[in-house]
Design brief:
The chain is mostly helical. It has five helices and no strands. The chain has one domain (about 10-115): Tetracycline Repressor, domain 2.
Length: about 120
């Protein structure tokens, strides 16, 4: 995860530049992927330490990292200014979709919150 992302506008500018640089250099892409895998491994281990079965811990860690990535991308694309809201929405979407709610329901809840 991009450690510069704290939800502040000045960090968005810095992070946008960082993303472009990483995208242009395969070695930096590989390093970023390694860091993401390391975070997932640490999260998986922490979940296991709390009694979550191995298979579920790995699944949850992967889903969490994907939701965080989705939130960061939405933060850049939607220009919301608040990364925290994007993170909350991403995890709400995961919850809603896993509970059988349609993606449209998740989008409606985002629209209601924005008002």
């Amino acid at each position: 995860m991009d450690h510069f992302l704290q939800g502040r506008p000045e960090n968005r500018t810095l992070s946008a530049s960082r993303r472009l640089i990483i995208a242009a250099h395969p070695t930096l892409q590989e390093r970023a992927q390694t860091k993401t895998r390391d975070v997932m491994a640490a999260l998986t281990m922490a979940l296991r330490d709390r009694g979550v079965p191995d298979r579920a811990a790995g699944l949850v860690a992967q889903m969490a990292m994907t939701a965080m990535s989705h939130a960061v991308n939405a933060w850049f694309e939607n220009d919301t200014g608040d990364l925290g809201l994007e993170i909350e929405q991403a995890f709400r979407d995961v919850h809603d979709l896993s509970a059988g709610a349609s993606p449209r329901a998740s989008q409606r809840s985002r629209a209601k919150r924005a008002c």
